Amino acid sequence: MNGQNVWGWKVAAYLFASGTGAGAYAVGLAAQRLGSDWSSVAGTGLLLGPALVAPAALLLIWDLGRPAGFLRAGRRPASSWISRGVVILCGFILVGGLHAALSVWPWGRPAPPDSLTLVLSAVGGLLALLTTLYTGLLLGAIRPIPFWSTPVLPLLFLVSSLSTGIMAVDLTLTLWQGVTGPSLSDALGGMRRADLLFLALEAVVIACYLRLTHATQASRASIQLLTRGALAVRFWAGVVAAGLVVPFLIQLLEVTSAVPSAGGLSLLSSVAGLFGGLLLRHVVVAGGVREPLSAAGILLTLPGRARV
Amino acid sequence: MARYGMVIDLKRCVGCYGCVIACKAEHVTRPGVMWARVLKAESGTYPAVRRLSLPLLCMQCRDPACLPVCPTGATVQREDGVVVIDRELCIGCRYCMQACPYGARYFNDGADTYFPGLPTPYEQSGDDRHPSGVVEKCDFCLARVERGLEPACVANCMTKARVFGDLDDPESDISRLIRRKAGFQLNPEFGTDPCVYYLPP
User: Fold this and answer.
1) Which residue did the predictor score with more confidence, B127 or B174?
2) What number is the ipTM of this complex?
3) pLDDT tens for each residue of A132-156
4) What does the DSSP assignment read for B95-133?
5) Are the Cβ atoms of A73 and B135 closer than 8 angstroms?
6) How far apart are CA A295 and CA B145, in angstroms?
7) What residue segments make up the domains of chain A, in order of their start?
8) What is the CATH architecture assignment of A9-292?
9) Which residues in B lie closer than 8 A to residue A66 (C-beta atoms)?
10) What's the distance, CA B126 to chain centroid?
11) What chain A residue is nearest to B192 in terms of C-alpha separation?
12) Is B91's CB within 8 Å of A72's CB?
């Protein structure tokens, strides 16, 4: 049984970029609370949020059969997760963009009033959370694909988004400081300690995800695709090795100071982790197998787009 | 108001694909776009083998999974139960294709022609009915039904395996067939309550 071919790489890339952007924004919000040592992390995170989510939304528009009509996608928020997503994405890009602009560029003017920043942080944080969660609920509403139709998926996207958000901020700061410069400032060290936690949590959630979606024939076929089938190399080498093991080991070595925090190693950790996050979205999207039909006790798998 | 439905007798169906061709001829659908299909499967081992031909079309569900997921309101259900797509509103997001458990919906990317190069004049005659970039599906041949004809797949079925009619009328042929011959819906566990019923093979 093959995975669905209705949605392809643009949807997977959207899921990755929007999740990473929302995660980076959440990192920025947290860093804002931690004092001036964290100001570069805060600024980078807040900026990366809308800067990643906006192009991700363009990917979705590009994926439409009629991109020019994309505004019509917001017409049914009462019933469709795509419409709700349009509201959430527009809201996040507007609020997050305004928040990032106000916090990074005061344009020499007096700082915006604390109450405004507080409101922007609260609304932007909520919208960032919804940006990561709704995608899992959107896929979860598709009942014929049991690999998606599980409450573990939004949780997996949330944890992975926080981890890739940290790595996106880390990568940006490491590149900014130059590949060779000493980079393990307090803030970067703190972020990597947090990422260790998220990476471990993500490994647990992925394990749960694969264990808990074993109930039907189609979901077993999905798991087989990932662990032994056509997606196995991408899953084991990409998601598990590059996305989880490599960044976990490098960050562990760095925060325990077993090796000096070299820029190149940090770079490798972030790039590998982000690549793994992208492949995680890809294997989830490409690994969605449809439930077969059954008549008179005989199972019939639905072919993809038929060729005649 | 009638509630249109169909019964397909799997004992009569010989898997000739006549319904598929009749549908193609009626609607001039693009290559790869299959409003009507026949799936084939085998079970058992020789010599105790069973072969099944399963004709598929849009099930015109009473509670369609494709309807609530549509973000534009392009998918609507008529009073007679037939689920139709407004081509002007559809933006081709394909969420409905994912949500439909029966794979009844197809995206027309407009790229394919039956023969290499340009579309044939016959294919071009269907262009205005099949704008590219939108999702399309079987509509129970509403244009024929409104002229008092049967859907093309029903009229063309050489074994008379298909019966079209009003499910709300307990005395209609299809209501009687469903009652008397233990008609069943395909995969009722999806909860969409299809209006296409099958009679056991």
Assistant:
1) B174
2) 0.93
3) 999 999 999 999 999 999 999 999 9
4) HHHHH-TT---EEE-S---SSSSSPPHHHHHTGGGS-TT
5) no
6) 28
7) 9-292
8) Up-down Bundle (1.20)
9) 90-92, 133-134
10) 18
11) A143
12) yes
